[in-house]
Amino acid sequence: MVYIRQKQLAGLHPYKYAGVDHSLVSRYILKPFYTNVAIKCFPMSMAPNAVSPRRFCRTCHAPNLQG
């Protein structure tokens, strides 16, 4: 199964992803939340893809598990 043909392969090399979110939700809700709350809950050595919203909620709202 071929996903990229040889003639399309030449155009793949100069491609560079440059996505930026300029939405109001991102600017006024998500960015302050991530910079003020999420960074304090997780170590900077943790991989970004290991921090999912579900894991974040579970970590912050976990019951006290002391025996």
Q: How would you characterize the overall build of this protein?
A:
With 67 residues, the chain is an all-alpha fold. It is built from three helices and no strands. The longest helix has 18 residues, at 24-41. 0% of the residues are buried.
Keywords:
67 residues, mainly alpha, 3 helices, elongated
How many helices? The count is 3
What is the residue-averaged pLDDT?
78
Instruction: Summarize the biggest pleated sheet.
Output: none
Q: What shape does the CA trace take?
A: elongated
Low-confidence spans: none
Q: Cα-atom Rg, whole angstroms?
A: 19 Å
Strand content: under 5%
- From the N-terminal CA to the C-terminal CA, the straight-line distance is 54 Å
**Into which percent range does the helicity of residues fall?**
40-55%
List strands and helices in order, with pairings.
Elements: H1 6-12, H2 24-41, H3 53-60
Provide a compact summary of the structure.
Helices cover about 50% and strands about 0% of the residues.
